[in-house]
Polyamine aminopropyltransferase
Amino acid sequence: MSKRPASHHLRYREPAHEGEAIEYLCKRVIYRGRSRFQAIDIIETQLHGRMLFLDGIAQSSEMDEFIYHEMLVHPALLSVSRPEAVLVIGGAEGATVREVLRHQSVRRVVMVDIDGQLIEVCREHLPGWHAGAFEDPRLEVVVEDGRRYLERVEDSFDAILVDLSDPLEGSPAVYLFTSEFYRRVRERLNPGGAAAFQGEGVSPQQVELHARMVNTLKSVFPVVQPYPYFIHSFHRPDAHILVPLDPAWSQAKFVESVRNCGLPLRYLSPETARAMFCLPPYLWKAYERYSRIITDDDPSPERKAGG
């Protein structure tokens, strides 16, 4: 019989969504502070190693962040022939650009994040995430709202990766989930390019925002491929969404790209690539039920229960 943890252990409590909370047993608080935009906590947990929390919500953990970041980055880059220029919107921990820079064809990476303080905190306290990526001469870091950046510059990219935190009510991220933003992303993609988006939770209790994202992306892009995965430290299934511009994109070609990429990946493989786009029936029903498009006039809802 398992024993209850000792009551004197430090605990970090995350309000997962309405009617539920997750509690992490912790060793120590590494950093606690607040930027202009959000509360930032970095906690050393007993099971997951270091974890980053923003406004009390888990964003990433030392033990399984590789799953999240491999699954965000490589499907998009492996859907493009020799990607050279890549834009990352969000991703302050540096792990997204770490994975991008593993591709030898990449010559330029621009990382745009609104929260410069968060970038510096992660750079200091989460070295395993960025693994020195911030020192790579191919990387340019821009502290700016991601949408404003897309509207300001005329640069184009072979791949765009949108690695945002949840669009909580009042957050500037809310307007980076709308059809207007997605059109800006498409305009900045080179022909044959691809984008990938952090696609929110896909548990039956939380699926509305994900479903609305998928339908909104379908109003802008010719091919939209959501794919779920499970992160133990999040205690829920999540998803990313791949949107290649090539209308002839196929899963078979993608599997071969994974097979031939030459990268020693820890999660993505030809076997996982063959299965990753298989969706359960409840998700297909959610796409039918939550069909309303996210727009600037009707932005994405605060993360909440109600799938």
